Structures are given as structure tokens and as C-alpha cells.
Here is the input.
Amino acid sequence: MNRLAMVVAAVCLGTWLIVACGQAEHTGPQQSAVQPAPGGPTITIAGMGFSKALTVAPGTQINIVNDDEVEHSVTSREKGVFDVHVDGKDRATLTAPEKPGQYTFYCLYHPAMVGTLTVS
Here is the structure.
């Protein structure tokens, strides 16, 4: 009976560790994960890539649509400008920077994924 209790305790502890380690927190400024408005400017994530380059006015709300099954991020190369994490098959919004310029962004989880946002 003691052996069974030890096995059950070990399985419970292992399960707890797996769940706890999978809940990493994101650091840095993050944008809202509210549902985006239909029809606005959109960055689509599909097939492990970002949609074509996007040009918007300063402060524009940008829809982010993740069509992939896995979590992605839209993170500016310039540290601290924007960092939005989107679960698989989910949506979020990003507010374009107020400063005009060209912003390269990438996915923290898949660094080969790169896109461009132009604010003018």
C-alpha cells in the first residue's frame, strides 16, 4: 500500500510540474487581447508566417489574427515598442506606435517569422 501511495504522489507531482512550467509569463509591454473590430487593418499569421507589410497611421488599432494552431507573438525588434502574444486560433489587437517610421517585428517563439509595419 505504501508503494501505491508513493507512485500516486509522484504522478501528481509530475503533472503539477508540467502544468506549472507551461504557464510562462510574458515580459515587456503587451497590448490588449480584446477581440478586434472587423474590417480594420490586419496582420494575419498563417503557415508560420506573417501577412504582407502593413502601412497605417500613428495610433491605429491593428487586428492580429492567428490562424495557426500554435501561439505566436508580434514583437518589435526595437525593444519595448510593442509585444503582443496571440494563442493559436485566436485574435488580439495592437495599437500602432505614435512615432512614424518603419518597424520590423518578429515572433519570439519562431524568430524566423519576420514582418514589417510602417507608420506614416
Remarks:
- The two ends are 71 Å apart (CA to CA).
- The longest strand covers residues 61-66.
- Helices lie at 2-21.
- Residues 28-119 form a domain with the Immunoglobulin-like fold (CATH 2.60.40.420).
